[in-house]
Structure formats: structure tokens, C-alpha cells
Amino acid sequence: MKLSLYNTLTKKIEPFEPLNDAEVRIYSCGPTVYDYAHLGNLKAFLFPDILQRTLRIVCGYRVKWVMNITDIDDKTIRDSAIGSERWNPAFGEQSLDPKVNLKVLTSFYEQEFRNDLAMIGIKHSDISIMPRATDFIADMQDLIRNIHDSGYAYISEGSVYFDVAKWREKEHYGRLFAIDVEHFKSGVRIDADEYSREHVSDFVLWKAVKDAEPFWDFTVAEQQLPGRPGWHIECSAMGHALLGLPFDIHTGGVDLRFPHHEDEIAQSKAGYGQETAQFWCHNEFLEVEGKKMSKSFGNFYTLRDLLDKGMDPMDIRFSMVNAQYGSVFNFTEFGLESASKARKRVQEYIYSCFEGNLGHDNHAEELHRLKQDFFSALCDDLHMPRAIEALFTFMKMCPAQALSHRDRPAFLELIHDINEIVGVWTIAPRPEMDEIPKEVKELAQQRWDAKASKDFTKADVLRKEISARGYVIKDSKDSYTILKEE
RNA sequence: GGUCUCGUCGCCUAGUGGCUGGGCAGGGCUCUGCAAAAGCCCCUACAGCGGUUCGAAUCCGCUCGAGACCUCCA
């Protein structure tokens, strides 16, 4: 099946066709590793995860997926600076070398980030490369020299800036975002750093070293400019080095359309003479309980915050994935609960397919429709809600017990493929219960006896005792089961 | 001020002109000590006002409302 995707470059949903038959090349703007990943980050990475899984499983392409790690920027420098409040004592003593401190801080959060990805079901084996910006300084410097040589950069007080005004004389600046350079709203936040640009619309390619900040030597136009890269340049350099330009799909949050991605396009074109990507895809933001997630609203959550509250990472994945990436997703506790129940219903259905008697009806047609509807919804700009709807509709039409000896394996095969994308279920028989302690079993039997003799007071006391040991009793008509309390 | 989304059942989400979408919650039943699990059934909404049309949640206009971005937040 062919995938169609909304392309911010054209503002239309377009059929996707790889530039190169061998594989689809995707670049995702990754995290800045100065803190634990928050829910918004997760949504931003779940989107390309579903994208690349769909490209592989439904469209049959090979995929090369690059997600960068930004380990040098204002915030990583700030937090690793000597005396920073955010320096975690677990990192040990701070070094006198700011580069060492930077590395310590960023490697810590990088590792945490990798753990978080695994936790929400993004497989490391699916990500071809996770390059760190600091490992590509030389590539960035080459690119900046190229841009300078071609006349679109100028040096000012030790920093190098991209000359947007000059670029606009030749090229369209505002490919992803309609920029009204003349009408920047007065009072809107303007980058307040002390670097001097000729125009506010210019952006920095290379920042001159400041006191006690990490820096790299750099020579451009026979000038020595010790400093560090600007934010946008890293993606241009890494995309070029690891995927080659132009590549197929570039992903990121909507906030990155401008200036980050716009500048990336301009830089790469100015320095490499090539377009960056044929598709630019942006995921919408996440809100929490109807409000923008922010520290000041007190609704700012990292993944580990939610796990500490006892939430299941697979429920978090399912709730986020079960929303179209291009629309604002409202993360609520009630919504997570809904998603959790819906997910478990499907899981229950899958377990049922491994047990009980077979049915005799023929559901080949419904199976075929499920396959068709599920995958075609995904192929339509990754409409996961519609795809999941097809699954529930199927389950309603065809109870697990009704599936025949032919339909069951067919369903399991299909749900396996579906799960290769959704990634929240276990396609296997119901796991054996953990060994239940003998005393709990005995208590349960006593309770059943008490109940049978209608001594309900005693039965309730015993239920409480069982509960105190972490188990619950569920009665059915003429038997009972013991389950571990969640 | 500029650019752009969006207002669908209690909540979340599909749906680019006609066929009462799905999930969760709620109600009923299978099953009567209590509770819980599972399954089945029920639950006809499209911000407002005009217009186009045989027919509009869906197209057009206006109004009201919500939100995002506008120089380093995914």
C-alpha cells in the first residue's frame, strides 16, 4: 500500500514515493539532553516511530531512521556550568573543564532518554543512528565555511551569522512558515543574548566563546573564531553526513517549523547547494487537561513522573498513539484510563484466541475488511484513530469464540502485523499466573465454603484477609479465581 | 498586528452532501449476599445565525468561542 502524508512544504497531503528505491531516509529532530524527557517529547518521537513502522510493515520499504541528540546548546551549557543548581550530585565533582562537565551532564540524560524510549516501546533497533551534535562539529564547521564562501554569512564580534536578507534576494525564505519579516509583532520576545546581528531576522551559525563555556577552535576566512555551533546548524550537518541530501522525510514538532527548520533549509541550500528533504512533517503539541503543558501551570510531566504514579507505559503509548499526530492531543487522566481499558479489551480478545472452543462461522470477509480498513487508514496520513476503530468494529462483529480454526490463525497473523505498528499487545497465550501462596489458596477455599454455607460475615472477613496479602477473589457461578491485586 | 488550526453525544475521537461511526463513562442483562471480571444490549450528537441544495455535521458567508506559532519550547 502507498502512504500519503501531509507535507508542510506544500500544505497538502501528498502521496509518498521514496527518492531512492533502496530505502526511505528519515531524520527526526531529537531531544536536547538537559533533562528527563517529558510527555511532549514522547509524542514527538512516537510520531516518527509510527511513521517508520508503517513504512516498513505496510508499505514494505527499508527504512533508515536518524534521530539526533542535541548535546550542546544554551541549556546544556547553563545546567552544566560550574556552580549550576541543576548539577546532580550523582554526577560527581564538577571538572574545571566545561567540556567535561557538559559531557557528564549530557551523557547522563542521553542514557535516561534511551531508557525512556525503550519504555514506551520505541525500539533501539529501529533507530539506525542517534548521532550526537558534538561528534559532528567538524562537519558543521565545513558547512559554515561553505556558507561563508558563498557569501551568505558574515562575521561579527567573533560569531558567524546567516544573512537572511541577502538570502531572500535569491531564495524563498518562508517555505514552511509564512514569515512576515516586516511585521514581527512588537513586543514579541526577541532573542535577548548579547550577540550582535545586523538584523533581527538573521540567525547565528557559530557563537563566539564566552567565559567558562565549552568551545571548539574554528578558522574561517583566515580568522580564528573559537566558539560553538548555533542550534540549527547541527541538523543540516548531520542530515547531510548521515543520510545525504535530499533525503525523504524530516520530522519534528510544529514549533520547529520556524525558525529551526526554515533555517535548516536555508543553510543546507546555501552551503551544500541542495534541498534538505522532500517531505517535512510536523506533529502537533500535546496539552495536559486542556492546557498547554508548562511548568507554570503545574501540569508538566516527564515519563518517569507518570511511571511513579503507577501508570503503565504501554497505556501511555497507546493513548498517545491513538490520536492523529497532526492534531493537538489532550492528555488527561480520564483519557489514559479509557485508553488503558480499551487496550486491555483487545488484549483479552487476543488471549481468548488461544483458548476455548472454536466457532464455525466463516469470518474471512470481516478479516479482510479489518486488514483493508486498518492499513488504509494508516496510509492516509497515519490516521490511527480510524485504524483502531476498524479493530473494535471487527471485535464486535466477530467475538473471539466465534472464530473458526481457519479464522483464528488468520486473525492472529493480522493482529501480529498490526501490533508491529501499534506495539502495545502481547500476541501469545495468556501467561501463567504467578504461583499463588498456599495460605492464600487456603483462605480462598475457606471463604468459598463460608459463602456456600451462607456465612457472609465470615466470607467478607476472609476476603479482607486475602486482600491484605495482595490478592483478590473473583467469583463466578460455581467457582472462583484468585488474582493478584494490581 | 501577521500566519494557521479547530469547535461532533457527559468525556475523547472518526466522518469532504443522503446510509444514525468507534472508545471511555452511564443504564440494563447474563449472575441475586457483597464485590469484581468478562460478554451482550441500550445510550441518535454535530457552537450560533443566514445561504446553496430535493437533501448539510459535511459546501459558502457572517457571528461567537477555543487554541497554536511569530527568533533557540517537541
Q: Could you describe the 3D structure shown?
A:
Helix content is 42%, strand content 15%. The chain has 486 residues and is α/β, with parallel strands linked by helices. The protein folds into three domains: 4-283, Rossmann fold, CATH 3.40.50.620; 288-422, Isoleucyl-tRNA Synthetase, Domain 1; 438-484. The strands form six sheets. A four-stranded parallel β-sheet has the order 4-3-11-12, covered by helices on one side. Strand 1 (4-7) and strand 2 form a beta hairpin. The two termini are 41 Å apart. The chain binds one RNA strand of 74 nucleotides through helix 1, helix 7, helix 10, helix 12 and helix 15.
CATH class of the largest domain: Alpha Beta
The helical percent reads 40-55%
Mean pLDDT: 88
In angstroms, what separates the terminal alpha carbons?
Answer: 41 Å
Contiguous runs where pLDDT drops below 50 for at least 5 residues: 184-195
Strand line-up across the major sheet: 4-3-11-12
Strand content: 5-15%
CATH third-level topology of the largest domain? Rossmann fold
Number of domains: 3
- Overall spatial form: globular
The Rg value, from CA coordinates, equals: 27 Å
Name the structural class.
alpha/beta
Major sheet attributes:
4 strands, parallel
Total count of helical runs of at least 4 residues: 15
Q: Mind telling me which CATH architecture of the largest domain this is?
A: 3-Layer(aba) Sandwich
CATH superfamily of the largest domain: HUPs
- Count of distinct strands: 17
